[in-house]
Amino acid sequence: xxxxxxxxxxxxxxxxxxxxxxxxxxxxxxxxxxxxxxxxxxxxxxxxxxxxxxxxxxxxxxxxxxxxxxxxxxxxxxxxxxxxxxxxxxxxxxxxxxxxxxxxxxxxxxxxxxxxxxxxxxxxxxxxxxxxxxxxxxxxxxxxxxxxxxxxxxxxxxxxxxxxxxxxxxxxxxxxxxxxx
Length: 181
Prior knowledge:
single chain
């Protein structure tokens, strides 16, 4: 919501130099609804022209940057979202790279069935794979991001597997106990 009590340019000009005002303030627009709509349409048109003129490499780099930023935002949160599981992000990466599963498995030096097991969450990735993914992306998506995606998924599994927690607790002898004194 715009604060109507904000000072006008004339009021600010009495107190500050033009340079100080320019460095310190963002002024609200005074466009009408029709002018704003026209400006939005012009922006969309220019953006589409720019997108159409991008090379395939620029589009790929843009999509990888988008993927990286989405992963980074996700990792900055503390919750698990299935869409950001290691397997789903690997599948997305293969799609963004516009590779078939066979081509991609050859690119990173693993068997196609292993890649299939990874993207279907039937096998856990190893550290070496994460380095390969980082290198394949030209360093755009660091190995640490891939690792953190995987560990976030593992952490969620550990938190929510009460059955395994109970069965493993039965195997423990001489559990430490602490008095509440």
